[in-house]
Here is the input.
Amino acid sequence: MASGKRDHLIDTALELFCQNGFHATGIDKILEQAGVARMTLYNHFKSKDELILATLRRRDEKFRNWFMRTVERLAKTPQDRLLSIFDTLDEWFTGKDFFGCMFINASAEYSAPDDPIHMASVEHKTLVLKYLRELSTATGVRESDVLADELMLLMEGAIVMAYVAGDHKAASHAKVAAGKLIQQSRS
Here is the structure.
């Protein structure tokens, strides 16, 4: 049952951090929402930062698994999968659980490059880029790593525009630009 309480704390903190941010979400709010005692929290985590790192790991795992499954569900060929990245983003942006990117937010709140929370955010983005590079390489385009880097920039820009500016067409606009980049990389 101990790991059940730990998982419940992580899930509760994940929801609150996504909705309200890291600094704005206090331990008392997490405890109240989770319905557990302070001692339970500190039996599983030494500090709030350790809880944040656990939530980032959970979010990374859940998000990347969902993201890759959705891309692969929406398209079968490597080139179509590169474009379906943006359809996948559109699903995320229009869902009820879109509060921007937890990793962008974490890196903004914990901006020191050597902060473990910032480093966990970098690791997530690196793993997403690795997936894009795998997809890009599978298309057989020249300079597939460059294409993946460019698509990553389009993704990140779309995420920010969808959240910060409320641009409901951010993913569609990024998909059009991605199509042009893919076409250029073929010539």
Observations:
- The chain has a mean pLDDT of 95.
